Amino acid sequence: MSSAAAAATSTTVPPHGVEEKTVQEELSLPILLADRVIKSTQEAESSKQDCFDLAKQVDHLSQMLRSAVRLAISTPSLYDRPLRRIASDITKTLTVH
């Protein structure tokens, strides 16, 4: 692969002229999706206990994501690559099902 092709496929550096999203922006979608899952579980008509358990776990996840946003805001020099990866993985998980 040429160096130009390698540069084009790199996900760590945004293309020239494109500003990278802030950590807060990256985490906002997983938080929104978690809130939607919680709402859906509360509206479920069947498997209420399973839905309650799922809602409890997703609520805990949502609280941790909100804590991560507060940490990112209060710590400007935070190494944010792990948070971005986690946000991406959570978004994929919550949108697949």
Characterization of the model:
Helices cover 73% and strands 0% of the residues. It starts with a helix and ends with a helix. Mean pLDDT is 84; it is low at 1-11. It has helices spanning 3-9, 23-43, 48-74, 81-96. It has one domain (21-96). 11% of the residues are buried. With 97 residues, it is mainly alpha-helical.
SSE inventory with pairings:
Layout: H1 3-9, H2 23-43, H3 48-74, H4 81-96
Helix pairs in contact: 2-3, 2-4
Structure summary:
It contains four helices and no strands. The protein has helices at residues 3-9, 23-43, 48-74, 81-96.
How would you describe this structure in keywords?
97 residues; elongated; mainly alpha
Give the N-to-C terminal Cα separation: 35 Å
Rounded mean pLDDT score: 84
Structural class: mainly alpha
Q: Beta-strand level of the residues, as a percent range?
A: under 5%
The tally of beta strands, per DSSP, is 0
The helix/strand order is HHHH
* Count of distinct structural domains: 1
Provide a count of the helices.
4
Proportion of helical residues: over 70%
- Shape annotation: elongated
Rg measurement, Å? 17 Å
Largest β-sheet summary: none
Low-pLDDT sequence parts:
1-11
